[in-house]
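Sorry, explain these tokens?

***
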Amino acid sequence: MSNLRIGLVGAFFPNFDALKLGVYEKSKEDMQALAHSLDFELIAIQEGVKSQEEAERAARKLEATGVDFLLIQASSFSLGDVILPLVNVNARLGLWFLPEPSFEGEIPLNSFTGFNLFASIIRLHLQERHLPFKWFFGMAATPQFQRRLEITVRALGALKRLSQTRIGLIGAAAPTFLNLEYNAPSIARRLGVQIEQHPMDDVFGRIDGYTDSQVTEVVGAMTARAAEVQVTDEWMARTGRVYLALRDLAEEGAYGALGVRCWPEFQSELGGIGPCAAIGWLNETGLPASCEGDVPGAISMLAAHHVSRAPVTITDLVALAEEEGLVHMWHCGPSPPSWADETGQALTYHPTLDRASPPDAPRSGVSSDLVFAPGPVTIVRFSQAADKLLLMSAQVVEGPSRGYAGSRGWLGDLHMNGERLSISDLIETVAYYGLEHHYPLARGNWTDVFHELAAWARIDILGRIAYQDYLVSPPG
């Protein structure tokens, strides 16, 4: 996938000192440095533009290079018609203005007025086009400018990669999980993601086709990252084969993520195996994979992976410690080893498949058993039609226990749209929206990035529903 391409053009008027002070030249140099550190490609028009004709030539060059985001700098005051060709470039827009180098005598740049003029023309003269833009202020080396640009780079970079993505669905959603349905045309329209469904046999038919050396290599990598391996070599080998089959199917289909129906067919057709640890290793090695055939979950995990640039996971919300204000997020073992606290990951027998079996019955494997390391996390999930976004921040903290066997952690300090959520607020919010019971997680607080991603994609972000003693019923 190609990196985000940012176009840069400076607009000025000869009566002001943009050329004399070299502000656009300095901006190009600083932006090139940021392109390296933030991992985007800079396409800069070499000379500033001062007329509509020059802006038209610049626009044609930028259009030809396929820029994704066009940053228009008011290097000084500029005539209003300069903006008209530039907003016709097929790219999202940013407007940038500069601080005045002095505060007395003749005004050097009048850059804020240039920005103000451009913004007003877009909002008023071109209002029927509904053109969103993001403003930037200051030299490119300043912290505020860099913070705002990094948010944009991560948000638009994720959107660009999603628009180039195919998701592979293995089987379908798990039996009776009717809330994991999805609207493929709407998802494609809003995010550009294409979904391709495979029968389970497309995975099962590959399982026995790998050599012992191929399996040994994968198992060696998995066990090297684990603090403890509690299962037999046979179970690890079978898990390695599942990983290879899923990985190769994804590579052949050019899939950016997978939704895997992990039960009941894996158990009935492959001798009771749970693919959890294999899914955890997919997540660790850069291929987000959701449990139970959850396509919107897989898309959400992929977006979180692109934004955070780190492994992601998916959980259920399973228990509440109301007095402590904590929630327990858990699943039966799909989390990557890099999520583990200082105890590390244990590769164990499956914590749920054998619950009804007699104590002396053969056990099933393999699960990624770990407790999440402390720190900030982001909970993010696109709706079935990708027209709404659940977005919360939280902290993984020490809870009242180590939690249930599997992949898990206690979360506190929950916020939604900047508002603190009590446990009762959380329950009210889950009930009000009928939130799907899978919650993708990313390491770090990326709520600012997802707010911007949603704004560019015209996706509504869900708000907190405050707890009430009376029935709170959604409209309609």
